[in-house]
Amino acid sequence: MRIISALNELSQAVLKFKKDGQTIGFVPTMGALHEGHLALAKESQSHNNVTVVSIFVNPLQFNNSDDLAKYPRVIEEDIKLLETKNVDVVFIPSESDLYPSKPQVTIDFGELSKTLEGQYRSGHFEGVGIVVSKLLHLVQPDRAYFGMKDLQQYLLIKKMCQDLNFQCEIIGVETVRESSGLALSSRNRRLSEKGLKEAQIISQGLTKIKSGIEKGESLEGLVKEVKGLYQSSQGFKLEYLEAVNPLDLSPITTHVGLDELAVCVAGYVEGVRLIDNLYLRLK
User: Fold this and answer.
1) Distances, alpha carbon 209 to alpha carbons 112, 163, 213, 266, in Å
2) Catalytic option among 37, 124, 137, 255
């Protein structure tokens, strides 16, 4: 496994991969890796000759300085983990290399970024767009892999690459969960044992909605019921629960006539912000 930090070294490596006719798969991460990240790397390895994993905690996508400061950083642990999975390249750029000066160019995702996460995390997606654009330019992958837990992020990046003609296929990989149903997240590291148990109510609520839809129950009624479940919880502070059309993230109250739907949720356990979603293909 090759560890690269310098941008010019990465450029040379990418040039050689391309010259040798090798396809490149890319997994951008902020570190504190878990099985969800490894699932992305495994998916990349199954479709590409070379897999590059980046580790960079992007300051531009944090609208809360305290959240940025507390974000887990365990770089040596991450490197050892990726080594066991035979990843080809780990790219670990410095902040000064990626941002030699404050970016003046911004990426506006329009209405797609003003709902759900965008409503509560001002500037978040603009920061995601900048860093992902930079990384895609540097790595020049044929395919890039994103977890579906961050559904809105996946959809926005896919749209950005389509609109700006990035020569890269954006692939979403299903959320990896604990046996309890809790979605894997780097932020879970900040939870106590009690907090981890309290956080299980998030996936339990989404499972209840899924089960109800399969039984033909009203989507609007199910969302209302689960919102009440969340609000009655002592350990989980709900921020939002919304049913949306995954194509444009517009709010929906019924799944009748739709090919797919998503129910997205965000909230706090022990002061740690967690997100999750239910993504259903109905046909």
Assistant:
1) 24, 34, 6, 15
2) 37
